[in-house]
Amino acid sequence: MKKIAVFCGSSIGFNEVYRNEAIKLGNYFIEYNIGLVYGGGKIGMMGILADTMIEKKGEVIGVIPGLLRHEEVAHTNITEMIVTKTMSKRKVKISKLVDGYIALPGGFGTLDEIFEALTLGQLGIETKPVGILNINGFFNHLILQLDVMVTEGYLKQSSKEMLIISESVEDLISQMFNYKVPEMTKIINKVVK
Ligand code: AMP
């Protein structure tokens, strides 16, 4: 995996454990020469991650819709900033650039982005690994909700298993590297293409 999209909060959270793990992820990307593609902000978890990598001369590509490109929020010191016309064009652009997706703690924006990536996988439109870094049990309730969706018949167990979950950066990325695309997804992907 040469480039990974990271979706994460435009806020920093109340517990510094989140910030520390974002720094750890940035350092891991540097060590293994992985480029970051992200929302292009300089605030919150996004800013921490981008700054960690920029300080060490890593590759950081921001993809931001024009409407969010205010001075207060957009990063001005990254490798490349791609400006898109709309939020949906931004998602398409990000998906063209990356080999996988990771979500760190965040709010609506983060959930929207990671679930879109999962939906593309479920429909076989993409076959890239999608992971969440479950820092401090942040996503525990979300994971339980996915179980409810399976037991109530709205989500296939096989689709749920596409989501890679780990509490450690090293383990998450190693699982992503070893990700095996489900057979069903491969078949659908061929038809879609
Ligand atoms: P949220 O989780 O609601 O804080 O939203 C964060 C996610 O949405 C990030 O992964 C970004 O891609 C996008 N996003 C939200 N707000 C901004 C912003 N001000 N600048 C750039 N991207 C943003």
Overview of the structural elements:
The chain is an alpha/beta fold and 193 residues long. It has a single domain (3-192), classed as Rossmann fold. Helix content is 46%, strand content 17%. It has a 7-stranded parallel sheet, with helices on both faces. Strand 5, helix 4 and strand 6 (130-133) form a beta-alpha-beta unit. It is globular. The chain starts with a strand and ends with a helix. The model has no long low-confidence stretch (mean pLDDT 94). The site of adenosine monophosphate has 18 residues, from helix 4.
Layout of strands and helices, then pairs:
Elements: E1 3-7, H1 16-31, E2 35-38, H2 44-55, E3 60-65, E4 80-84, H3 87-97, E5 100-103, H4 108-122, E6 130-133, H5 140-151, H6 157-160, E7 163-166, H7 169-177, H8 183-192
Parallel strand pairs: 1-2, 1-5, 2-3, 3-4, 5-6, 6-7
Helix pairs in contact: 1-2
Ranges where pLDDT stays below 50 over 5 or more residues in a row are none
Structural class estimated from helices and strands = alpha/beta
Count of individual beta strands: 7
Major beta sheet summary: 7 strands, parallel
Bound molecules: adenosine monophosphate
Shape: globular
Instruction: Output the helix-strand order.
Output: EHEHEEHEHEHHEHH
CATH class: Alpha Beta
As a percent range, the share of strand residues is 15-25%
Taking all Cα atoms into account, the compactness measure Rg is 16 Å
Strand order of the largest sheet: 4-3-2-1-5-6-7
Mean pLDDT: 94
